[in-house]
């Protein structure tokens, strides 16, 4: 049995400590569980996309867990997939992420399982690394097919909110044009778990034999600043994934004691002031 603790959307910065008090409870939970791997599914930082100090500080926090860990970047860590956004994903931002957190995409084989981390912020960006990542993902997913390895995918944005064929949801999920390869692998039965963050809601659902986990943030919830139809429960937490030798997945929402339910709406003007 492989035990993976997913944490996400911590949004921590040494200069904007609005949500920092929630790190200790989630770190204590991680140490108590002592999983085989901690995976952070992005928005580790408040603003690692522009503040290298945020990346350095959060790397130090992750190492302080004294547990094996891996991370994939979020929009606040490496920028947005939208080239018009003031913080578009680019080579400099990715290189700074990689200097602190390692490759923005990764593969770990653990027992029968293949764990794949993806940089969701490239998806739909048109950056040359988007195609490189898609080719690489195609190869490692095909290898998993050929060898019968069940796959768990970790990425910041959900591939979709409710349905793989739904219309694009802009900021909230991976654009339809960029999700096809992953949806195909899900439909082939290769991918057994898709674990994402970004929405700041908690939701675990099963669809055609694949578990989709919208990981609970341990930073803050989003009240009126999110569209009313974003699915999931507005609560903080962490997610434990149990992956067994037969390729079955059980995912559970955990509620570490001592988390403060911060609401971004209350402090957005300080943490993420509007930019022109
Ligand atoms: Fe976030
Ligand atoms: Fe995000």
TrEMBL record:
| Domain of life from the UniProt record | Bacteria
InterPro entries, alphabetized: Calcineurin-like_PHP, Metallo-depent_PP-like, STPP_CPPED1
Q: Start and end of every Calcineurin-like phosphoesterase domain?
A: 2-201
PANTHER family the UniProt entry points to: METALLOPHOSPHOESTERASE, CALCINEURIN SUPERFAMILY (PTHR43143), SERINE_THREONINE-PROTEIN PHOSPHATASE CPPED1 (PTHR43143:SF1)
- What GO MF terms are annotated? hydrolase activity
Q: Name one Pfam family in it.
A: Metallophos
Protein's name in the database: Metallophosphoesterase
What is the originating organism of this protein?
Tistrella mobilis (strain KA081020-065)
């Amino acid at each position: 049995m492989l035990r993976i603790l997913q944490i996400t959307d911590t949004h921590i910065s040494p200069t904007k400590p609005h949500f920092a008090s929630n790190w200790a409870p989630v770190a204590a939970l991680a140490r108590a569980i002592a999983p085989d791997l901690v995976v952070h599914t992005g928005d580790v930082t408040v603003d690692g996309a522009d503040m290298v100090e945020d990346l350095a500080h959060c790397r130090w926090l992750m190492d302080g867990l004294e547990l094996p860990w891996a991370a994939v970047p979020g929009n606040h860590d490496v920028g947005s997939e939208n080239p018009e956004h003031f913080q578009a994903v680019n080579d400099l931002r990715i290189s700074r992420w990689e200097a602190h957190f390692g490759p923005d995409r990764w593969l770990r084989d653990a027992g029968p399982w293949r764990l794949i981390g993806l940089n969701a912020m490239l998806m739909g960006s048109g950056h040359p690394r988007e195609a490189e990542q898609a080719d690489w993902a195609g190869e490692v997913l095909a290898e998993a097919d050929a060898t019968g390895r069940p796959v768990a995918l970790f990425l910041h944005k959900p591939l979709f909110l409710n349905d793989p064929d739904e219309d694009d949801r802009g900021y909230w999920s991976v654009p339809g044009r960029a999700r096809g390869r992953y949806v195909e692998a899900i439909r082939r039965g290769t991918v057994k778990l898709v674990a994402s963050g970004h929405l700041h809601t908690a939701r675990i659902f099963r669809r055609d034999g694949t578990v989709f986990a919208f990981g609970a943030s341990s930073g803050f919830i989003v009240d009126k600043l999110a569209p009313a139809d974003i699915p999931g429960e507005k609560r903080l937490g962490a997610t434990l994934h149990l992956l067994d030798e037969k390729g079955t997945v059980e995912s559970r929402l955990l509620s570490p004691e001592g988390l403060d339910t911060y609401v971004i709406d209350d402090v957005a003007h300080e943490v993420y002031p509007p930019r022109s």
